[in-house]
Amino acid sequence: MPGFEHFGKEERKHVNDVLETGILMRYGFDDPRKGIWKAKELEKEICQTFGCQYAQLVSSGTAALTAALSALGVGYGDEVIIPAFTFVASFEAVISVGAIPVLVDIDQTLTLDPQAVKKAITKKTKCIMPVHMCGSMADMDALIKICREHKLLLLEDACQSIGGTFKGKFLGTIGDAGTFSFDFVKTITCAEGGVVMTNNEDVYTKTDGLSDHGHDHKGSDRGADLHPFIGYNYRISELHAAVGLAQIKKLNDFLKLQRNNHHELKQILSQVSEITFRRIPDPSGDSCTFISWFLPTEQFTRALVNEMKIQGILGGNFYWFDNNWHYIRKWDHLKKATTLHALHPDLRQAITQQAGKDFSDSDAIMSRCISTAISLNWTKDQLREKGMKIVAAVNKVLSGQKAAMQ
Ligand SMILES: Cc1ncc(COP(=O)(O)O)c(C=O)c1O
Fold first, then answer.
1. Fewest CB atoms within 10 A around its CB: which of 40, 42, 98, 315?
2. Would you say the CB of residue 61 lies under 6 angstroms from ligand 1?
């Protein structure tokens, strides 16, 4: 997820435009800003690039999820179905609007298993939140069908899949709302930032107000704005938006490089018959930030991770099963509902119920999965060397394991 790899004069130019006016805030100060509105301009670019009607920039992907949930009317007592493999922001956002995160198994797509989603639906379910992890997509046809049948909202967390598509539509623009993160390690970055995308004017108007203390933004005098509801400050700054404006213009180049490097690495890894790959519901829409691959058993995968560590080639390869950010196994703070502020006892109880759930189907997938981050900067030789070293390590571990079994 490498936007920062190609940071250059374009980003500096947009940031300097803002520095020259000295107006670092996205709202107000109409005269001194001399026509420089970077956040507004970036929102327009987002709508044009991804084909959505509305885009509301905010301060992070987490803020985008929180604002979107709130604007969709998800709150106290509602259940939101999310995958067991995601980023902590998914349940943070759900809990922050007072709703209940219901974690369910993933399948070989590395995101929501539609069968597990169906089983988790109750009278309280209000929203399904697929998380398009590691550059690629959830099984959107199946999830859209479930949402229609059960009259549920669909909120896409596309924070990790900027530029990915499903059947010709950009991820994040398909559901009732969708989000991107523009944090430092995303496909395009603002340093910190996020966006809510939607085709629903009401959802947009609400995210617009919510992210700026409930301001209705109807006039040019902030002091005279009305506050139809209570909001927060999730505003993005002009400096951050300026960086994003330069980056979005490079997105197509990033995606081309990513897809090319992904393709080459996949060819190399495919030499090993024991390696299999993640299921991609629409392969042409993979944004290719990562290549995610599986080995036959957990034991073998752990042996490989160990071998790669010894050889000093593990960097850029992620064994999420042991990672504290991305998988339920390590989320004790969630399982114990450890918060700094008091939670409603019903919410606390509902959250702690996640601890007793059986995620063995997800374990069986995640314990065998490695995701390799795709760099924009690899030369052909570096890519080949990297791939061949992984293949050699896999073969070494494989022959060691076979010998041990004889
Ligand atoms: C899937 C997913 N959702 C949400 C977020 C939150 O984004 P941010 O870091 O901008 O708050 C991230 C960040 O890594 C993410 O990976």
1. 315
2. yes
> Distance between CA 377 and CA 93 in Å, rounded?
34
Spatial distance between the Cα atoms of 290 and 272, rounded to a whole number of angstroms: 19
C-alpha to C-alpha distances, 124 to 77, 78, 223, 323, 336, nearest whole angstrom: 7, 5, 40, 31, 22
Nearest residue (CA) to ligand 1, atom 14: 87
Cβ burial of 264 (10 Å; 0-12, 13-18, 19+) is: middle
- Report the C-alpha gap between 170 and 51 in whole angstroms: 7
Closest atom of ligand 1 to 93 CA is 4
Q: Which of the following is catalytic: 186, 250, 335, 386?
A: 186
The string of pLDDT tens digits covering residues 304-326 is 999 999 999 999 999 999 988 89
How do residues 124-180 score in pLDDT, each as one tens digit? 999 999 999 999 999 999 999 999 999 999 999 999 999 999 999 999 999 999 999
Rounded (10°) CA dihedral 85, 89, 93, 98: 70
Q: Cα(257)–Cα(266) distance, rounded to whole angstroms?
A: 14
